Amino acid sequence: MINIFTSPVFYICLTLGLYSLFSFLRGIIKNQLFNPLLLTSISIILYLLVIKSITGYATKETVDIYTNALNFVNFMLSPLTVCLALPIYTRRHIIKQYWLPILVGTIIGCAVSMSSVFILGHFFGLNKEMIYSLLPKSVTTAIAKEISQDIGGIPEITIASVIVTGICGALFGPILTKIFKLDRSASIGMAFGASSHAVGTSKAVEISTRAGAISSVAIVTSGILTVIIALFL
After folding, report:
1. I want to staple 136 with a disulfide (CB 3.0 to 4.6 A). Which of 10, 35, 58, 147 is the partner?
2. Chain centre distance of CA 221
3. Is there a single domain that holds both residue 107 and residue 214?
4. Among 17, 42, 75, where does a domain finish?
5. 126 and 225 share one domain
6. Helices (H), ranges, the chain
7. pLDDT given for residue 2 in this prediction
8. Tens of pLDDT along 115-158?
9. Domain carrying residue 63
10. DSSP-assigned letter for residue 208
11. Same-domain pairing of 40 and 140
């Protein structure tokens, strides 16, 4: 019986079902702390701990079973990232209008993100492998994972840092825009897209349609620039 609850199909349905449920509840509760991605991650961790206690598997074995079950989902990340070219094409008029803020914002965003990891990593005594794992934390998961593998990082830690970065951006981004009195859609969109990728973009869309559009463009431009910088590491 327990095999049913550790099967690949069940894990995929569980993950998608929980995310859909929390997304539905998010629309009702309308609280920034009620983040579907965060709550789904916590729920999956608790479920794996329960399965571990029932089956007697080691922690790594339990996680490996779940990871292997979702290999298909992970495989689809790369094609989905390529599909980001579509919003860039459909919003090319925005790129023409705001090409300078997008270029400058992307460069500054990537520079601050990666340099802060280097500085804080050395300050707290992290080894090179851990620092390289955290470097691409501000770009979308598929790109961050590939960068991490190429420069010698740990993809699993990279993915976790990407999720945490996105959630923090969605939670604290609106607060920071009020503190610094950012009211222009271009500035808000660049800030969310360059620092907290798709999760931040979903929040930017709630602020304004134009902010969401610029944020979605910033995701791609930040990813491209981060890949280029990673080539020299």
Report:
1. 147
2. 15
3. yes
4. 75
5. yes
6. 8-29, 36-55, 59-69, 71-75, 77-82, 85-90, 92-97, 99-123, 128-134, 141-151, 155-179, 185-207, 209-230
7. 59
8. 999 999 999 999 999 999 999 998 988 889 889 988 999 988 99
9. 4-75
10. -
11. no
Q: What is the dihedral of CA 222, 223, 225, 229, to 10 degrees?
A: 130
Domain tally, the chain: 2
Query: Cα angle vertex 131, ends 130, 136, to 5°?
Result: 110
Which three-class secondary structure state does DSSP give residue 232?
Answer: coil
Residue 81 has a pLDDT of: 65
3-class DSSP state for residue 205?
helix
Contact status, residue 46 vs residue 105, Cβ threshold 8 Å = no
Q: What is the pTM of this model?
A: 0.79
- Averaged pLDDT, 29-54: 83
At residue 47, what are phi and psi to the nearest 5 degrees? Answer: -65, -45
* Residues making up the chain, counted from first to last: 233
Residues 114, 31 share a domain: no
5 secondary structure, DSSP code: G
Distance between CA atoms of 69 and 71, rounded to whole angstroms?
6
User: Can you tell me whether residue 185 is helix, strand or coil?
Assistant: helix
Whole-number Å distance between alpha carbons of 45 and 35: 16
Are residue 56 and residue 111 in the same domain, yes or no?
no
Angle CA 177–160–124, to nearest 5: 80
139 CB-near residues (< 8 Å, 6+ apart): 147, 162, 197, 219, 222, 223, 226
